Amino acid sequence: MNLFRFFIGSLKIIINGGRLYYSCIFFLAILIIWGAFGYYDQLKDGLIMTNMRDSVSWGFYIGNFTFFVGVAAAAVMLVIPAYIYDWKSIKEIVIFGEILAICAVIICLSFIMVDIGNPLRFWHMLPFIGTMNFPSSILSWDFFVLSTYFILNLVIVTYLLYSHFYNKEYKKSIILPLVLLSIPAAIAIHTVTAFLYNALPARPYWNSALLAPRFLTTAFCSGPALLILIFQIIRKTTKFEIKDESLFKIAELMVYAMFIYLFFTLAELFKEFYSDTEHIIYWKYLLMGVEKNREIVIYSWSSIIMGFTAFLLFLIPSTRKNLFTLNVGVVLIFLSVYFEKGITLIVPGFTPDVLGQFYFYIPSETEIRTAVMIFSSGVLLFIFIARIAIAILFNGFSIESLKKK
Amino acid sequence: MKMIEKDNSRREFLKKVGLLSLGTVALASCNSSDYEDFLQQNFKTLSKEEKDEIVKNLEKRYSEKYGKEFHVSDKAAKEGILFGYALDISRCVGCRRCVYACVEENNQSRDPQIHWIQVLQMHKEKGIDFAHSTVHYNPEIVPEPGKFYLPVACQQCRNPQCTTVCPTRATWQEEDGIVVVDYNWCIGCRYCVAACPYGARHFNWGEPNVPIEEINPETHYLGNRPRTKGVIEKCTFCVQRVRKDEGHYPACVEICPVGARKFGNLLDPNSEVRYILENKRVLVLKEELNTQPKFYYFFGV
């Protein structure tokens, strides 16, 4: 009965809002519908509607999957500084970070679902009802760590909100171990996802021990970047308190991550270009293109330039400690990592293919529309859950408020 | 033996759990044969009776669809056989007859086009060099001066990476060394395509298309039976031919006009492949990856 009332109450929260809120929801709904019609073509005719072929057999979908694994992982990473620096609203930071993680994992799994040729056979890779190839296949590991991470976050968020909803004190002895466990789990999902590519000796572009460390450092940039924006929005619209100093601190931590990323990438580039073996071809395609084919070059260079600009903006204290330049940097680094993970990590791994043949890939309209559908649905889901959480945390949406009515 | 039975009954139970939880999705849009397909388990885990039943149903369905009598074999590997292949680079003229013989024998889709064999044209002065090779050569007459040809299909590795990475165990190496795919179990994630160093795995990006009059009705469950969209396929050394008791050669061996292709049992000291291993010097592609192919290249003349 209470659960039913909770749902009705939540529904009211989701439905009610200002003009800005409605236009936002409406806009997302339009995007989802537009994307769904694109995805319908793929469902009907198969993955031939994408631009992927045998040479480049993974593309934009898997790139997006990788990017959102990063977002999911890094959201929880903010818990560490929140503890270390003893920020005031640590519970709220944990909750919003983990809601973001939940939505990001759902986005990840959706991108896997649209990428596989037979989505209805997905259960074949589950343990017990299917024949999961554990522990041989890294994909089965990835599935295992992603679902563990998902469940962990879901339990923490649900429990925290539940106790708040019933005006009970939450038990630290339950929450603390779970939150602490979610930190290695966050590292695990990203490491295992990197190993997914790393484990393929057939693809020299990925077969570098630096791949997983580079993954982690970029994740430390993209996830917190998103959270800095989200925190500012929530701070404006609710009683949620996070000091500017905390935001600047997050940015400072991101600088370290960016610096390490830069160093790793330079180490990689040095090794590849100085050795100048035949494996250099993938890097040449990435940075310069091959003959007339420069599809990827614009993405890689805009990623580099945006990332570097963000690095400078965050490095210089006066631009880091200014909300305007900080936000510019946040948007730049987010896009930079998105281009890197979405396009320039996956595609050069396949170009040229294992027999040295070139097939030049850019996402097709179907792929972009499908991605827009998933992305918008994820954002919508986040907005809905976040609004319910805000109502519970700040606006007195509780069991009493329901009973009063 | 008991263990296996127990396992089967658990599987049976779990199958039903799967039915309840996932069946609703399938029920909404599928007819009964689709429904059976949906619930079919991994071929490797099935009992003999279940396999017979599936094969019989498939024969019926294919015969109806293509209007001619179909045979779907599920003949298992014979003991004492390990298939091996040898290809004489110095004889190959790059005519691509093997490519098209393979397409016809193995019911590969014509449009979208799938070729299990890729013939690479290479430069004589560069040697075996993938980076400077091309599959898109199209002269009036082959061989062209200064060029030589390297046909590549599945190398039937002893240590195949494609089967290791498969998340569902939908592909495996049989006892006779042939790497096969269960088309009814493959989810189409294409991890094997990324893992294969030889580009041997091919994905059905769209609905495969074979003209009814050209379809080959002599098939094997793990080989050349008709595929559906969204699954992986690959060279199986013509499993439907080579496992026959009378022992046929793969189609590419039979068609080759210059006799560049040799095939046989690596465990038989008198086989032709063993003769080549003994008397010619052979090489395998990308030996540094430790895939240990059973597909050897040699220079016969």
Structural commentary:
The complex is a heterodimer of chains A (405) and B (301). In chain A, helix 5 packs antiparallel against helix 15 and helix 8 runs antiparallel to helix 9. Chain A has 405 residues and is an all-alpha fold. By secondary structure, chain B is of the alpha+beta class. In chain B, 30% of the residues lie in helices and 15% in strands. Chain B has 9 helices and 12 strands. In chain B, the strands form 5 sheets. In chain B, strands 10-2-12-11 form a 4-stranded mixed beta sheet. In chain B, strands 1-8 form a two-stranded parallel sheet. In chain B, strand 5 and strand 6 form a beta hairpin. In chain B, helix 1 packs across helix 2. Classes of the chains: A mainly alpha (405), B alpha+beta (301). Chains A and B meet through helix 6 of A and helix 1, helix 5, helix 6 and strand 7 of B.
Short description:
The complex is a heterodimer of chains A (405) and B (301). Chain A is an all-alpha fold and 405 residues long.
Question: Which terms would index this structure?
Answer:
heterodimer, A: 405 residues, mainly alpha, Formate dehydrogenase/DMSO reductase fold, globular, B: 301 residues, alpha+beta, Alpha-Beta Plaits, 2 domains, four-stranded mixed sheet, 15% strand
Outline type of chain A? globular
DSSP strand count of chain B: 12
Task: Specify the CATH class of the largest domain in chain A.
Answer: Mainly Alpha
Poorly predicted parts of chain B = 1-7
End-to-end distance of chain A = 14 Å
Q: What's the SSE blueprint?
A:
The complex is a heterodimer of chains A (405) and B (301).
Chain A: H1 2-15, H2 19-45, H3 60-77, H4 79-84, H5 90-115, H6 138-165, H7 172-198, H8 211-237, H9 244-275, H10 280-287, H11 297-315, H12 317-320, H13 323-344, H14 347-350, H15 365-393, H16 399-404
Helix pairs in contact in A: 2-15, 3-5, 3-7, 3-8, 3-13, 5-6, 5-15, 6-7, 7-8, 8-9, 8-13, 9-11, 11-13
Chain B: H1 2-29, H2 32-39, H3 48-66, E1 71-73, E2 83-88, H4 97-105, E3 118-123, E4 147-152, H5 161-165, E5 171-173, E6 179-181, H6 191-195, E7 202-203, E8 218-220, E9 232-233, H7 239-242, H8 251-255, E10 261-265, H9 272-279, E11 282-283, E12 295-298
Parallel strand pairs in B: 1-8, 2-12
Antiparallel strand pairs in B: 2-10, 3-4, 5-6, 7-9, 11-12
